[in-house]
Every structure is written in structure tokens, then in C-alpha cells.
Design goal:
The longest helix is centred in the C-terminal third of the chain and has 20 residues, at 159-178. The chain has a five-stranded antiparallel β-sheet with strand order 1-2-3-6-7. Strands 4-5 form a two-stranded antiparallel sheet. It has helices at 26-39, 135-148, 159-178, and strands at 45-47, 57-60, 72-82, 86-91, 109-114, 116-122, 128-134. The radius of gyration is 16 Å and the shape is globular. The protein is α+β, with helices and mostly antiparallel strands. It has a single domain (12-178), classed as Peptide Deformylase, CATH 3.90.45. Bound molecules: nickel (II) ion. The site of nickel (II) ion has 5 residues, from helix 2. Residues 93-95, 143, 147 line the site of nickel (II) ion.
Length: 182
């Protein structure tokens, strides 16, 4: 397994649409394992675009244990149903940071999405699965699925808030580069 480099804005791969996976072969299994390992360094979810791979796979784990026993692996996920009632959660993203390892900064924003969804996907063995998810899990799945279509959580907030986040990232990057030893 390997920890993959997480792409951050404005990397164009974050704005591209990932392609469906035709078969879960050895290459896909390796990608999934590497994505899980990469996600466990920090986040509760990761989409393949974020590691520069344009294939429709996401991994998530919203459990406290974070030992892999409750990991969700979704290949080619599709939303079958969304509730009308909504849920709001303060979202952040490993890719919407000056560098993915910087979790100290306040680069989060409230995002409102359907509270409940029903999702169909293939698991890592190729079996078709369906789950109902609500609140945090639903929010997280929708956030990761957005990535597969080149959409970031900042696309769901006001232009004012989006610009604030982008300016903050630029400022943090400027500070980082001036901190470098000569
Ligand atoms: Ni994200």
C-alpha cells in the first residue's frame, strides 16, 4: 500500500469528470487500498480525482475507530433517491487547503444537502450494493460523489464565502513559501 499525493486547488484534475470503472481488476484493488491508506492520514472520505485518478471510486469512514473495519468503498456510485428535507454540515476538503496536510486553518463552510439518500454502488468485490444514508454519512457520500463530477464543496456556498476561502488558501501558501530556509 502507498500513501498517494493529494491534489489541491486549483489542480485541473479536481475539475474533471471521472470515468466509470468497467471491471474491478488488480489495478483498481490497488487504487482502493492506496486511497484508504491515504484517507486514514486525515480525512473521513476521499475520491479518486483527489489523488489524480479519473475513475469513479470513493472511500469513506465516518466511524470513531478508523481501523478500516467500517470503511465504505463505493465503485460507480449512483444516487437513486434523495430526500426533500435537508441537512447542513460544516464541510471541509483535503483538496481545498494550501497543502493537504494543513488542517490547522479555518477552511470550512456550511453546506446544505438532502438529508437522506439511497445509493447504489459496487463494492470492492464487484457486488452490487444499496444503502440508505442520512445526515453525516449522506453528506459525506454526496461530497465525495461531487468530486467524481469535478464539483467541490465550495461550489455549494456563496461566492463571498468561496472567495474568502480561496483568498485564505493563497495567503497561507504565500506565508509557507516565505518560511522556507534559504
Ligand atoms: Ni473533498
Amino acid at each position: 500500500m502507498a500513501i498517494l499525493e493529494i491534489r489541491t486547488v486549483p489542480d485541473p484534475v479536481l475539475r474533471q469528470k471521472a470515468a466509470p470503472i468497467a471491471a474491478i481488476d488488480k489495478e483498481i484493488v490497488t487504487i482502493i487500498q492506496d486511497m484508504l491508506e491515504t484517507m486514514y492520514t486525515d480525512g473521513i472520505g476521499l475520491a479518486a480525482n483527489q489523488v489524480g485518478i479519473l475513475k469513479r471510486v470513493i472511500v469513506l469512514d465516518i466511524s470513531d475507530s478508523r481501523d478500516g473495519s467500517e470503511a465504505l468503498i463505493m465503485v460507480n456510485p449512483t444516487i437513486l433517491e434523495s430526500s426533500k428535507d435537508t441537512f447542513t454540515y460544516r464541510e471541509g476538503c483535503l483538496s481545498v487547503r494550501p497543502v493537504s496536510s494543513d488542517n490547522s486553518s479555518d477552511l470550512f463552510a456550511n453546506v446544505t444537502r438532502p438529508r437522506k439518500i439511497r445509493v447504489r454502488y459496487l463494492d470492492q468485490t464487484g457486488k452490487t450494493c444499496e444503502i440508505e444514508a442520512e445526515e453525516l454519512l449522506s453528506q459525506c457520500i454526496q461530497h465525495e460523489m461531487d468530486h467524481l463530477d469535478g464539483v467541490l464543496f465550495t461550489d455549494h456556498v456563496s461566492a463571498l464565502k468561496r472567495n474568502m476561502i480561496m483568498r485564505k488558501i493563497e495567503k497561507l501558501r504565500r506565508n509557507m513559501s516565505s518560511d522556507k530556509p534559504l
